[in-house]
Design goal:
It is a single chain. This protein is α+β, with helices and mostly antiparallel strands. The protein is built from 5 helices and 2 strands. Helix 3 (44-54) packs parallel to helix 5 (77-83). The protein is globular, with a radius of gyration of 16 Å.
Length: 104
C-alpha cells in the first residue's frame, strides 16, 4: 500500500494543473474531445481555433503544428496563444530545463 500522504499530494497536483499530452495531432478527434466541440472530427482547423481561443488547459503537447500555422484563414494561432500568455514551443530547443520527457 502507498501512504495516504502520497495520494493526497498527487491529487492536489492533479487538480492544480490540467493538460493534454498526446503522440498524435493535438487536433485529432480523441484529444480534441477534451478541449473543443465540433460537429465533425475532420474539422481540425476549427478544433485548433477553439483550442487557441477558448483553452483553459495549462498544457497542450502533441503534433499537428500545421493546423495552427498553415491555415486557410491565414491566422497564426500560435501567436494568438502567446498573446493569451501561453509559452509556445515548437521543438525541444528553448524548452525550460525543468521540462522532462520520461520513459519507463
Amino acid at each position: 500500500m502507498y501512504p495516504d500522504w502520497l495520494f493526497r499530494s498527487f491529487v492536489v497536483r492533479a487538480i492544480s494543473h490540467a493538460g493534454l499530452v498526446v503522440t498524435s495531432r493535438i487536433t485529432h478527434a480523441t484529444p480534441a474531445a477534451f478541449s473543443s466541440h465540433v460537429s465533425d472530427r475532420d474539422e481540425e482547423y476549427d478544433i485548433a481555433q477553439q483550442q487557441a481561443l477558448n483553452q483553459t488547459l495549462d498544457v497542450l503537447f502533441g503534433g499537428g503544428l500545421e493546423k495552427y500555422t498553415d491555415r486557410p484563414d491565414g491566422v497564426n494561432l500560435l501567436q494568438v496563444m502567446e498573446q493569451r500568455g501561453y509559452q509556445v514551443l515548437t521543438s525541444y530547443k528553448g524548452a525550460p530545463s525543468r521540462l522532462c520527457v520520461c520513459a519507463s
